[in-house]
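Dear H.,

Thanks for agreeing to be a second pair of eyes. The structure we're designing against is below in token form, covering all 325 positions.
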């Protein structure tokens, strides 16, 4: 295999996109899996500072092996075209119809570039998964990256009519888009796992309970839907029991994310972060409550102990994981 990572481990980087998402994974094989690249920032269709960070991460490697577009909301894909300009993309895995990715002329770019695009279906009525890529570490321990959930529709419901062009693929109604987010699991045999949830909702999480053996006791969970209240159901928090939680959310987002109630679910049900230290006061439509301030204003006193992290506070978050020692 070409270009293995120097350490032979997974290298994971959660980029600070403001309100948005971009997750980069360098597999032990050297393959690149990129999950989303979008922001609500002004000029969010251009390359922006984040696009240059993507390029820096890719370095001399001209290829992105797998681009996963979790769903067709622009805060998840607005920068992808500019960031990947001039790079080859081997395969795009997406949930909604390609034509739904219309901002920044992303769909035109994907149609024109002769890229292999696959609309992923993991039928939520039964547990199931689709492998993205897999391999083994130098010591023989197996690893894999899999999609656990995506479209909730059956193939019959969303397949194009006979003779229809790709541009005529049926699209998912906006209200269902988040529930159809692609959920990606990075897992190591007998070791750690990381779950990337996009904007998955409690509905998606109900499906994922069928995968409880694979998503239990996570090394790291990227909180679904930026810590929104419509995700991170109690059952999901209990089942995933993450050692570390990462929330990708913008400091001044008008959605007031993450919700304090959601963070509390992780700290009380699961005992992630015995002391919650974010140094970040989530905005509240009614202003910030005193209670919220008390919870969050620990500033950076416990930096080294933190196991809840947030892109709004920490900026880009990077870590490596490898086979069990
Ligand atoms: Zn989002």
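And this is the sequence the design step returned. I haven't edited it by hand at all.
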């Amino acid at each position: 295999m070409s270009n293995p990572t120097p350490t032979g481990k997974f290298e994971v980087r959660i980029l600070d996109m403001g309100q948005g998402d971009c997750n980069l994974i360098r597999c032990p094989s050297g393959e690149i899996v990129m999950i989303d690249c979008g922001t609500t920032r002004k000029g969010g269709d251009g390359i922006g500072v984040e696009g240059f960070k993507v390029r820096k991460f890719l370095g001399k490697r001209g290829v992105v092996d797998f681009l996963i577009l979790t769903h067709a909301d622009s805060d998840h894909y607005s920068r992808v075209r500019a960031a990947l300009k001039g790079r080859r993309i081997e395969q795009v895995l997406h949930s909604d119809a390609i034509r739904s990715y219309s901002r920044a002329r992303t769909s035109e770019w994907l149609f024109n570039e002769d890229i292999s695009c696959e609309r992923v279906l993991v039928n939520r009525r039964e547990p199931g998964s689709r492998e993205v890529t897999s391999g083994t570490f130098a010591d023989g321990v197996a690893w894999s990256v899999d999609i656990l959930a995506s479209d909730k529709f059956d193939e019959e419901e969303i397949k194009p009519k006979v003779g229809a062009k790709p541009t005529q693929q049926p699209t998912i109604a906006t209200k269902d888009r988040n529930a159809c987010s692609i959920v990606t699991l990075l897992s190591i045999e007998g070791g750690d796992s990381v779950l990337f949830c996009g904007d998955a909702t409690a509905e998606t999480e109900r499906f994922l309970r069928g995968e409880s053996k694979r998503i239990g006791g996570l090394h790291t969970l990227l909180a679904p839907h930026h810590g929104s209240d419509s995700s991170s159901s109690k059952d999901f928090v209990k089942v995933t029991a993450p050692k570390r939680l990462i929330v990708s959310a913008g400091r001044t987002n008008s959605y007031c994310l993450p919700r304090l109630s959601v963070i509390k679910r992780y700290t009380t049900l699961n005992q992630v972060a015995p002391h919650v230290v974010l140094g970040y006061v989530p905005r509240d439509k009614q202003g910030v409550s005193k209670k919220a301030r008390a919870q969050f204003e620990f500033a950076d006193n416990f930096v080294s102990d933190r196991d809840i992290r947030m892109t709004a506070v920490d900026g880009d978050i990077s870590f490596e994981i490898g086979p069990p020692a």
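Two observations from my side: The radius of gyration is 19 Å. The chain has eleven helices and 14 strands.

Warmly,
E.
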